[in-house]
Amino acid sequence: QSPFLSSSHPSLPPSSFTMAPKKSTKPKGKAPAKASTASKVDPLFPSRPRSFNVGGAIRPAGRDLSRFVRWPKYVRIQRQRAVLYQRLKVPPAINQFTKAIGKNEAAGVFKLLNNYRPETTAAKKQRQRGDAAAAAKGKGKTANVPYQLKFGLKHVTT
Q1: Residue 144 in contact with residue 135, Cβ under 8 Å?
Q2: CA gyration radius for the chain?
Q3: Which end of the chain has the smaller Cβ count within 10 Å, N or C?
Q4: Of 151, 130, 150, 155, whose CA–CA distance to 142 is shortest?
Q5: Please, which residues have CB within 8 angstroms of residue 113's CB and are 6 or more apart in sequence?
Q6: pLDDT (tens digit, 9 = 90+) per residue, 98-156?
Q7: In contact, 123 and 91? CB cutoff 8 Å
Q8: 95: alpha, beta or left, given left = phi > 0 and alpha = psi -120 to 50?
Q9: CA atoms within 13 A on the CB side of 90
């Protein structure tokens, strides 16, 4: 018979073979002096013992963690809008509405536009009666319709 067949399990080595002796872990020479490493410790970076308890993995204080904060929704939206506006190329015809007019300039514009305000229904009626009376006298057609500012979608022109 073969010596391999005498083994009780096929994956185990046969009993006639022996294991190699283990190597010893004892140092053969003298250990280096540890006092020399203690004198080389840098005072700027003191060694802090690590804590493996609950909460021991918390980041050290002093680091700026504001990038990792969950910011309020309005802050995130206004930051994303700023990034989008930098990336998009907006046509000038649309971009003019992103800049608001100043208070002093607005007062001047409204003062100018007030002169071209559309006439009221009572003023229009009175003007038409005057035109009709002039036409009845035989003066002919007089166009004294005041200049007025038109607004609305039907009056937008290029």
Answers
A1: no
A2: 47
A3: C
A4: 130
A5: 149
A6: 888 899 999 999 999 999 999 999 999 999 998 888 888 887 776 788 899 888 888 87
A7: no
A8: alpha
A9: 12
Helices (H), the chain: 35-39, 73-87, 92-95, 103-114, 121-137
State the pLDDT confidence band at 4, using cuts at 50, 70 and 90.
Answer: low
The separation between CA 46 and the C-alpha centre of its own chain, rounded to angstroms, equals: 39
Q: Closest Cα partner for 142 from 122, 128, 124? A: 128
The predicted-structure confidence for 60-86, as pLDDT tens digits, reads as follows: 777 888 888 899 999 999 999 999 888
pTM exceeds 0.85, yes or no: no
Average pLDDT value for residue range 21-41:
67
Give dist(CA 121, CA 117) in Å, integer: 12
Residue 39 has φ and ψ, to the nearest 5°, of -75, -20
Structure tokens at 15: 């009993």
Q: How far is 63 from 100, CA to CA, in rounded Å?
A: 40
User: How far apart are the C-alpha atoms of 15 and 152, rounded to whole Å?
Assistant: 104
